[in-house]
Design goal:
Bound molecules: 1,6-di-O-phosphono-beta-D-glucopyranose, magnesium ion
Order of helices and strands: EHHHHHEHEHEHEEH
Strand content: 5-15%
Shape: globular
Helix content: 40-55%
Number of strands: 6
């Protein structure tokens, strides 16, 4: 174990409700259905893919101009809700785990699909904590493609075989598995494909991870 890659949204901080509210508004304004179940399917998936999923669910076809307009509109709504984010929004267990990993010489990275990842990390004052940050601006293929995680390994010259991924979404676990990494699911909803799953990062330390039989 040399590198721990953290997904951002759902692992370090939860902005899921803001994505939900923004997509809900876009959907309502455009006579489309959108609920929490559909929102769950968008976790870890890029903005473009998310809109395709919503349109597909509603059997709706729009042209490229309208498609890009909706993407921009959704992002404007989402970004305006990020301004209230602060250190208080960091999920439980994150800060002690980061400290424990650093104390034991483990490199840490962010591997996120979000193009707003750096804004979020600045807001919660974690931007300077990571050895590498790879986000939606750096990749061509969104999760479940492993590109975002492989790029973290490449940036730090660490083998994927020595890397662990923390994820809250099926698409992210799949990306970790396709990248031949150890995958750790996080959150109330159990991610079945992950090598191991924790409800939260509370009380997880370097020793917990070192002793895992995965
Ligand atoms: P943006 P993660 C993902 O972040 C979110 O889980 C997903 O819901 C969102 O659509 C995606 O980022 C793109 O976000 O619109 O900000 O570029 O979980 O990979 O950190
Ligand atoms: Mg996530």
């Amino acid at each position: 174990m040399k590198l721990i890659i953290f997904d951002l949204d759902g692992v370090i901080v939860s902005t899921d409700k803001y994505h939900y509210l923004a997509w809900k508004k876009i959907s309502t304004n455009n006579e489309m259905e959108f609920d929490e179940k559909l929102n769950n399917e968008l976790r870890g998936v890029s903005r473009v893919e998310s809109l395709k999923i919503i349109l597909n669910f509603n059997n709706k076809v729009i042209d490229d101009v309208k498609f890009n307009e909706l993407l921009e509109e959704k992002n404007d709504i989402y970004k305006s809700s990020l301004s209230s984010l602060s250190e208080k929004d960091i999920l439980e267990g994150v800060i002690p785990l980061i400290k424990s990993l650093k104390d034991n010489g483990i490199k840490i990275a962010i591997g996120s699909s979000s193009k707003n990842a750096k804004t979020i990390l600045k807001q919660v004052k974690l931007i300077d904590e990571f050895d590498a940050i790879v986000d939606g601006n750096d990749i061509k293929n969104s999760k479940p493609d492993p590109e975002v995680f492989i790029k973290c390994c490449e940036k730090l010259s660490i083998s994927n075989l020595d890397s662990y991924v923390f994820e809250d979404a099926e698409a992210g676990v799949e990306a970790g598995l396709r990248g031949n990494m150890k995958t750790i699911g996080v959150g109330k909803e159990k991610l079945k494909k992950a090598h191991i799953h924790f409800e939260s990062l509370n009380n997880i330390t370097y020793d917990t991870l070192k002793n895992l039989k995965i």
